[in-house]
Amino acid sequence: MKKPEGAATASSQNQERVGSRHSRRATRLWAVLRRRGWVLLVATLAVSGVAVAIDARTPARYQAEAVLIVPATVPGQLPPGQPDNAIKLAKTYTKLIPIDDQVIAAGAAAVGVSTQDYAKALTVTNDNGTALIHVVFQADTPDLAVKGATKSAALLTKLNPPGQITNASLRPVKIPDAATAIAGTSTSSAILGAVLGLILGIILAAALERTDRRIDDAETLGQVIQTSSTEWGPPVKEEAAALVHRWGAIAGSPAPVVALVSAGPIPQYDVASVTHLLAERSTAGGLPARAVEARQRPSGGGHLPAMDGESARLLAAGRLGHDEGAELAAQTSDLVVVLGSRGGRARDVEEARDRLAQYGIEVAWALLLPRPHSVAP
Questions:
Q1: Looking at residues 237-253, what average pLDDT do you find?
Q2: Maximum Cα–Cα distance for the chain, whole Å?
Q3: pLDDT of residue 296
Q4: How many domains in the chain?
Q5: What is d(CA 349, CA 336) in angstroms, rounded to the nearest whole number?
């Protein structure tokens, strides 16, 4: 059944909105990676270096493994052909052996270590669903590791084993003849350190982004300054004319004076470049604009020089709190537009907004520049 045209259009618009959101997120993520990439690099290298250094100072460690089995037939214990009982008994032994004091004492005496060291070095595990028991012994030397596993296996498989082990209920399957090193190698330590460092770097980068929020798109700029916002292209003639015409409609004046002020360290000549480019490219229709430098304004205030015809007058006011006369130009204009730069600090935009609010000025529009020194066509 064919979908109604309206439903298809709505679905298409919905997909476009979702795609746009994903695109914005990808753009922001890439901006964060470019801005905070040094944090990831430093954290990765630092933690990796520390891991390698610790590994180099850590004494070598070895382990040897003996494999035992609980047979399906144990004299006086398991009836013939009952492997399930053997599996259950193997699980019981796995938990019993490491805590049986008599087993620990006998094993320590056989290996020649203290009971505390023996209990700490011994590990007993069971393969799930089998009657196999793995007896693992760890030590500082390979010989001691092999001795510990071998002596433990011999003790547990005796005809009369110590503790609560049933007579002849365990048989050897594999006795070790060599030990394996279990301490991490420098390579594995470096890789693990790099992974942990990367995770730490991501956490630190996220924390820095929260404490030092940046402007990465026009949407964020508009949210911070709480007004409409667009992104600097620079615009083609039609877009520039539409933008200037919109400013005239907001100002409610046939020939408004629009002051362009910057938030953050945007050079004065960049503000002037934006002003002049908008003026040049807004002649395609609507309300043409003329660029006026802030220094043309009389020091005592007053009106801008008269101009022929009805045209918006774009005033390059400069940076608030830094360029002389920026606040005065904003106060005596019909409309104020704030310029922010991509990657600039959100706090700079907030300070510009709050500074204008002190003079009773409400920002009418915001323009996002690609970055400082890059507004030329």
A1: 86
A2: 117
A3: 43
A4: 3
A5: 14
What DSSP element (H or E) covers 12? helix 5-57
Note whether residue 338 is domain-resident.
yes
The verdict on 158 and 78 lying in the same domain is yes
Same domain, 223 and 353: yes
Tens of pLDDT, residues 130-146: 999 999 999 989 999 99
Other C-beta atoms lying within 10 Å of the C-beta of residue 184: 18
In this structure, the strands spanning 132-139 and 62-69 are: antiparallel
The per-residue pLDDT for 35 is: 77
Taking the C-alpha atoms of residue 171 and residue 148, their distance in angstroms, rounded to an integer, is: 17
Q: What is the rounded average pLDDT for all residues in the chain?
A: 81
Residue 294, helix vs strand vs coil: helix
At 71, list the tokens: 């047979």
**DSSP codes, 174-220:** E--SS-EE-SPPHHHHHHHHHHHHHHHHHHHHHHHHHHS-B--SHHH
Q: Is residue 222 part of a domain?
A: yes
- What range does the domain containing 42 cover? 17-58+185-211
**321 and 263: one domain?**
yes
**What digits encode the pLDDT tens for the residues 290-313?**
887 664 443 333 334 434 446 888
Instruction: Give the three-class secondary structure for 74.
Output: strand
DSSP output for 105-133: HHHHHHHTS-HHHHHHHEEEEE-TTSSEE
